[in-house]
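User: These chains co-purify. Model them together.
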Amino acid sequence: MLTMIAKRMMLAIPSIIGVIIVTFLLTRVLPGDTAAYFAGPAASAQAVEEVRKKLGLDQPIPVQFASYVANLARGDLGASLTTGRPVVTELAARLPASAELTLAALILSLLIAVPLGILAAMRNDSWIDHFTRIFTTAGVSLPVFFTGLLFVYVFYFLLGWAPAPLGRLDVFHSPPPEWTGFFLIDSLVSREWETFRAALAQLALPTITLAVFSLAPIARITRASMLTVLASDFVRTARAAGLSGGTVVMRYAFRNALLPVITTLGMVFSFLLGANVLVEKVFAWPGVGSYAVEALLASDYAPVQGFVLVMAILYVLVNLAIDLLYGVVDPRMKVEG
Amino acid sequence: MDRRSFLKTGAAVAASVSAPAVWSPSKAQSRQETLLIVSESGPNNLDIHGVGTNVPGYEVSWNCYDRLISHEMKSGPGGVPYYDRDKFKPELAEDMNVGDMSATFKIRKNAKFQDGTPVTAKDVKWSLDRAVSVGGFPTFQMKAGSLEKPEQFVVVDDNTIRVDFIRKDKLTIPDLAVIVPCVVNSELVKKNATQQDPWGLEYTKLNTAGSGAYKVTRWTPGTEVVLDRNDQWTSGPMPKVRRIIWRMIPSAGNRRALLERGDADISYDLPNKDFSELKGNDKLRIISTPYSNGIQYIGMNVKIAPFDNVKVRQAVAYALPYQKIMDAVLFGLAEPMYAAKAGAPLEAKWPHPHQYNTDIAKARQLLAEAGYPNGFETTLSFDLGFAGINEPLCILVQESLALIGIKTTINKIPGANWRTELNKKTMPLFTNVFSGWLDYPEYFFFWCYDGQNSVFNTMSYQSKQMDGYIEAARVAAANNDTAAYEKSVKEFVDLAYTDVPRIPMFQPYVNVAMQKNVDGYQYWFHRRLDYRALTKG
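Assistant: Joint model of the two components:
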């Protein structure tokens, strides 16, 4: 098991190196002049040059790259020019916000989509099947920023059920003592019930927005996979042997139908991280996505590079986790070391 | 307040989340003394002397640091309290004595920095030295008032500082009241300075080290800034608001929702359309004030054919859809800078409307006279950073220019790249805004029309005659010769409108929306909020 993990990590190294090189080059060819941007509106050409020198941008590209890699090896991702702080600190502070939101959405989505998928497969062509199809297709067809704004309008502005879309916490709550960076967990650990409630209330709308968007692939795959399994011989045998419907579906059919669902889950997690950027903007969520986009608009290289690198590592880890899950669900699929 | 807590409780019950008393009495108390401000973007640096500090950063500096002097207030357009360009009041200084070639300031004896150390003349000198030495924007701004060398700032005794003038310049004293010459706690910053960073810019980027009325107690870049009142502040009347929470809300729709629901106290920026709609909402107070000394214009590069031909430029000036832009793009929230009454005498003021208005027949005729009866092709560039105004504006201009045969391709330039492009001076046709902190016509013209060809002379306009008028106005101002000054101002305005290298369209508005119980908004030359005067009823 451990050797297998180590081997998978080794295989990931070339792709990470590739990511480092490509993001470095991409950020340099983007239009926009960092020095001019940071020299301010009133800068003369000479002032721009002074800033360029200060930022080390007057060096040739290979020299800049070498110093970037050297810093990277020390765990230093550079400093953001827009926020004025080290990228590592900034990402570490913002990643839990994005991760909490993405995971909450993924869990909510699973809780809705999997039962819907199973029901749709069991009652193939019934009203529940059609309802699932329409509901999930509508969810994935609406852009997240639109559903997000719609939810804010209806649930905050009109009905007043949701709290103000002010980010992770209401203005008058301070964050719980840092433990995991996940406000829900941290507030439970420190027994701050009111903070927990406030954080949960803030989290609700963005989570639902993201979850609605990710229902479709999970529900559709669950349904398709269940249909195949339900039509197979061993299910017919189980039914013939007089096992109860529930046992047949949950213990035998569902477990066998789970593999493709897990594969999809990995993909869904990846694209949720992407969709996050828009949801973060709508709900003023202090996540990594909005951080990277703001940096990109300001031609601020370091955060963009750091963000892409962190995402690449995250993808590698997610894929690894999925592979390991395969082994748990289906011993035949255990990856060889 | 009652309505709000009622809604809040109602919301909690409706959502059936088990919520005990959400607003405990102490929270209600703090809410009363706390102001929640929302805006699109926040500071990237807490120190205006820093490298690349953005405009929201200026707001922090303004409220957390003191200057020697500041401006008095007067009643401005629409009765809004408006800074008085010509009247100064002491801030950190208790007394100012302006001589012929120097000014002497006595510093308040009881003034203390936020860490408790007294403010001395040494701190003031160090701070002014810093402003003229760090380079970039602060140094540039100091130069605008002939404040160029550290030798100009002389410590007389512990509580007295003298500023020597290197030349007679009417802008020297006003320039000491802008944001840049703020007084920094020199000992504290020096302790945190390094060899590479002798002015301690890295420290003040993240920490406020001033004697001002507020101090930053929490700052999460891109998310929020929390400022607490400095209860030891002595440079003015004690501010009413104990705590300012400034949250960055990127979505304009949400900022508006927060305001209308009563959750946010002030929204600093919203699209013009929202403001024009909110004006009808009597639960809110909407304040729109024209930018002082600021104009959005269409510029033409006079070094590039066919815009080197004055008749072509005049043709464009007659072809712009001024009124349509006012109505459809700005929703009336701007001051028109066109269609001055024909034959009306010029006034010695700036911004000053010009005589052009949309007249397609006249534009066609001028274009034919210039030798382009069938028009020509060119590109029209704008800054995507302000796409909300610029994009619809450019589309209307494109449509209108097509009527006289000028075919334009619209070139959208990302905000990060805009200044580089301006600096290159290769764009033939573009729209841009310029506004000067110092509200004097000759200041505007010196940067925008003078032959020294600064970044802001985006048209590369060079004229000996123009330079002469501007210089004459500066000299007359320094010598208090009003008649000569007004004559020169009229002359350069007149020339700018005959040669029309740039066509002013409108003076933009600063729009601020707030709850009815929030009062004390003041308009300042820097257009940001002054927390010290705000109150919450």
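Chain B touches chain A through 58 residues (CB under 8 Å).
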